[in-house]
Amino acid sequence: MKLAIFVCLVAAAAAAPQDYYQQQPEIRLLSYRFNSDDKGNYEYGYEQDNGQRVEEVGKSIPGYEPETGSISKVGSFEFVSPEGQQFRVDYTSGEEGFLPSGAHLPVAPAQLPEYQAHQQQFPELY
């Protein structure tokens, strides 16, 4: 049994691409910043030479009880696809959830009038 496991491990190692890290181009960090305060607020960002860029600002929102609260975030990230097209996503994140927007992202359809009427008629269900 041990021999079978050993043979499988050797076969898996031999089948793995040996030049994986040689195929990947080296990506350099052009800029980086991170600032925070003692209240939990922060901002950070970085840019790489492959076109990737990230910016984010987080604001700590204290809760009504000690050790509770939430963080509200606003930010964006940019990247270049393998086809060479540049994409940018702007977002907010907080109590409403993660809300991304970008020219390449689909837009949610408008609410159906029947659903909205039902929501107004039976608010306890929502």
From TrEMBL:
<feature type="signal peptide">
    <location>
        <begin position="1"/>
        <end position="15"/>
    </location>
</feature>
<dbReference type="GO" id="GO:0008010">
    <property type="term" value="F:structural constituent of chitin-based larval cuticle"/>
</dbReference>
<keyword id="KW-0732">Signal</keyword>
<dbReference type="GO" id="GO:0062129">
    <property type="term" value="C:chitin-based extracellular matrix"/>
</dbReference>
<dbReference type="InterPro" id="IPR050468">
    <property type="entry name" value="Cuticle_Struct_Prot"/>
</dbReference>
<dbReference type="Pfam" id="PF00379">
    <property type="entry name" value="Chitin_bind_4"/>
</dbReference>
<keyword id="KW-0193">Cuticle</keyword>
<dbReference type="InterPro" id="IPR000618">
    <property type="entry name" value="Insect_cuticle"/>
</dbReference>
<protein>
    <submittedName>
        <fullName>Pupal cuticle protein Edg-78E</fullName>
    </submittedName>
</protein>
